Amino acid sequence: MENWHEVFIGKIPKELYQMQLINGEKQGLTIELSSNHTCVVIKFGIVQAVRMLDEGIVQNNLYCDNEIKKYKDNNFQNVIYEVQEGEFGKQINQISDGYGEYLNLRHYVVITSNYNVDIITEWEPTIEISQT
Hints:
- The protein is built from four helices and nine strands.
- It is α+β, with helices and mostly antiparallel strands.
- It has helices spanning 55-58, 65-72, 87-95, 99-103, and strands at residues 3-6, 18-24, 28-34, 38-45, 49-54, 80-84, 106-111, 115-121, 126-131.
- The N and C termini lie far apart (41 Å).
């Protein structure tokens, strides 16, 4: 059963962010969040999979209703969540023929007002915050 956990609680200020996603072979995945007051850079490094969808089309049908409701009702006070037993993680593990279990992959979801980004990775991201 899908289970969501808030991670890095209180580290990323609650603001209305614009997102820029940068991904490449050299630097890996970086998500930049910017608001009028804050710039947040989340560096995942090389990831196994990434999926980016408009939040309006995914939150009612893609994730476990109970888990999404738990955080949506509180207006997603956090930006990043770790998902256990999520469908995207299961899909990646299935198509990798079990390699994902061997790597002990983690499934994160970054949620902004416009996008949901699912990330499958071996590593915990680093987060840099600066005031603008």
